[in-house]
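To: structure subgroup
Subject: Chain for Friday's discussion

All,

I'm putting the inputs and outputs inline so they're searchable in the archive.
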Amino acid sequence: MSRRQEVLVALADAALAVERPHPVRVAIDGCSAAGKTTLSDELAATLRERTTREVIRVSIDHFKRAVALRTRFPQDSPESYYLDSWDNDAIRDKLLAPLGPGGSRSYRHELMDFAGLTAVDGQDRTATADAVLIADGCFLQRPELDAHWDLRIFIDIPLDEVLRRGIARDQTWMSSAAEAERRYRTKYIAGESRYLDEVRPRDRAQLVVDNRDFEAPRLTVGTNPSA
């Protein structure tokens, strides 16, 4: 078994060990380009191999606020990115609270397209009582959402690696490597630095994955080990 497979099995076992009278809500938190989506997809697949429980896979990027409604701050600013890009009320009310204590278990798995331009007119889904939700995204431990997670996993890479990976990944749709570097330095990394400083998500997570090496990530227990 590879190091990555070992980490995925350990994460799956940790999620399955959380006992709740409602679906277990797992946050895969981290900065841009940390590898959250890939790891979350792999974790969901690993869970499906290890349990007959329902596994719900959601990307929080499908709960962004419509671009046209992001008017509180200049759209190219770190404040717009951190404070105005996601509809945290909808994340709470349409996804996390229904799956939590006393919830109806009727939830939405997406509200917007990835670009935040078009609303998705989907149907409510109903989770089983012992389902496991795997949700990845940035800023998942911010105060509006934090109380609604049952397990917090932080995917950790240095900010200089965020910059390197972000440029490589996004330079095409951002028109050039230079433009991608500008936007990462002035908007994304600036917003994520504020989150890291204010919320300290790495310290607060139950589990931390050092994902600098995709093939050999390292799993450690956070300083907040109780779920």
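Points worth raising on Friday:
Helices lie at 3-17, 36-50, 78-84, 88-96, 159-170, 177-199, 201-204.
The first helix runs from residue 3 to 17.

D.
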